[in-house]
Amino acid sequence: MKKPGQVFLVGAGPGDPDLLTLKAARALATAEAVVYDRLVSPEVLALTPPTARLIPVGKAPKNHPVPQERINEILVDLAQGGLTVVRLKGGDPLIFGRGSEELAALKAAGVPVEVVPGITAAQGAAAVTGVPLTHRGLASGLRYVTGHCRDDRPLDLDWPGLADPDTTLVVYMGAANIAEIAARLIAQGMPASLPVLAVASATTPRERRLVSQLDEIAADAAEAGFAGPVLFVIGQVVSLYRSCPAEVLAMLAARPLRDAAYA
Questions:
Q1: How far is 84 from 89, CA to CA, in rounded Å?
Q2: Residue 173: active-site member
Q3: What DSSP line would sit under 137-201, residue for residue?
Q4: Per-residue pLDDT tens digits of the chain, which is 263 residues long
Q5: SS3 category, 31
Q6: Does the annotation count 16 as an active-site position?
Q7: 7, 14, 163, 182: which could form a disulfide with 190 (CB 3.0–4.6 Å)?
Q8: Per the residue annotation, which of 59, 89, 164, 190 is the catalytic one?
Q9: For 106, what's the count of Cα atoms within 13 Å in the CB-facing half-sphere?
Q10: CB-hemisphere CA count at 13 Å for 178?
């Protein structure tokens, strides 16, 4: 009799494999199939078993080669075929990752599924840049928002509520719309001079950073030409930014990778 399959919805963290949870690493070590997103770093993918089947299903702005419904079907089919499946998502699987939709689809199909949380990109960026997400006297609250809507629809956010200078605002997937986001926040009264930190590929050897202010961040980010996922931290806490020690980045760059075919 064929063994029953199962799915682990695993948060791959912000990119540095050392930031995987122990539970995530254990799940990954048992994987017979790994279905992964574009935001999962090659350093994390290098930890997959050599025999595991690697299936990319990543999306990019205005480029969704594998629709969400098909991803759900892939997960169900693999598990019903008796495989142990790891669904790898950047950051945490239930924060802006549509993991809840996959969780619902798997439960509806009767597939055993377990969620393994991960460190979010915001937490990872805060750790490596030294910019706290909250700080006494600077930020008493924190909000995460997505800067990109499904099916590339116009942004429909709570602009008056977000324009609070006493709250740190973290924008995920906002590179394409940061000009509109900044303009909307300023129109609602957020100071144009409010500092902003942009971090691309946080916690990986490809990490890049940019400190600007709200009315200049769009132009500065465009000029910098960041590649890969970009996270924006908007708020007074950015005034605490300190450069990451050079030896830390050198250590990340020197970390060896195992060759893997990501297909």
A1: 16
A2: yes
A3: TTBSEEEEEESS-GGGPPP---HHHH--TTEEEEEES-GGGHHHHHHHHHHTT--TT-EEEEEES
A4: 567 799 999 999 999 999 999 999 999 999 999 999 988 999 999 999 999 999 999 766 555 678 999 999 999 999 999 999 999 999 999 998 889 999 999 999 999 999 999 999 999 999 999 999 999 999 999 999 998 766 566 788 999 999 998 999 999 988 989 999 999 999 999 999 999 999 999 999 999 999 999 999 999 999 998 766 899 999 999 999 864 444 444 444 454 443 332 22
A5: coil
A6: no
A7: 163
A8: 59
A9: 26
A10: 29
Per-domain boundaries in the chain:
6-119, 121-246
The catalytically annotated residue of 16, 164, 173, 190 is 173
The yes-or-no answer on residue 158 being catalytic is no
Question: What is the CATH class of 6-119?
Answer: alpha beta
Using a cut of 0.70, tell me whether the model's pTM lies above it.
yes
Q: Where are the beta strands (DSSP E) in the chain?
A: 6-11, 33-36, 53-56, 84-89, 113-116, 141-146, 167-172, 195-200, 208-213, 230-234
Q: Domain 121-246 adopts which CATH fold?
A: 3.30.950
